[in-house]
Amino acid sequence: MRTSARTRYALRAAVELAAAPPGPVPAERIAEAQSIPRRFLDNILLQLRRGGLLHSRRGSDGGYWLTRPAEEITLADVVMIIDGVPEGGGPGEYPGVAGALAEVWSALRDHEERLLTEITLADVARGRVPGREAPSGARPDQGGSARCPA
């Protein structure tokens, strides 16, 4: 699965918000914690807010926070807001004996979608990805991350 830098940054920002204590988190703090260029992050946060995933408040005590509990927001929710619905190649895209490749790509997209809808922001923030063991030595409180087969 190929994901854009924008999607990867959006997922990192959303997980950062999922791991944060309740209340607004300044964009600057998200940018620093996740090494995301601030101007790029601002656009991503705006897109996530317009997509209904985030609330925001301006001012010195402002910032961003999730609209729902992290346990209710899947990675697919974030990806859909950033990338929209993935396009699929139709049967006519692969002529002759290669026609079955359209089914292969369709099955792959279905698998990816199922996986992304099973994993929540809370799972990732806690370093737990269903069906996967955490990398050896990684602890969620030390910035360890579980890898998602993508």
TrEMBL record:
It comes from Planomonospora corallina. It holds the Pfam family Rrf2. This is RrF2 family transcriptional regulator. It comes from the Bacteria. PANTHER family: HTH-TYPE TRANSCRIPTIONAL REGULATOR ISCR, WINGED HELIX-TURN-HELIX TRANSCRIPTIONAL REGULATOR, RRF2 FAMILY. InterPro entries: TR_Rrf2-type_CS (IPR030489), Tscrpt_reg_Rrf2 (IPR000944), WH-like_DNA-bd_sf (IPR036388), WH_DNA-bd_sf (IPR036390). Residues 127-150 are annotated as: Disordered. Keywords: DNA-binding.
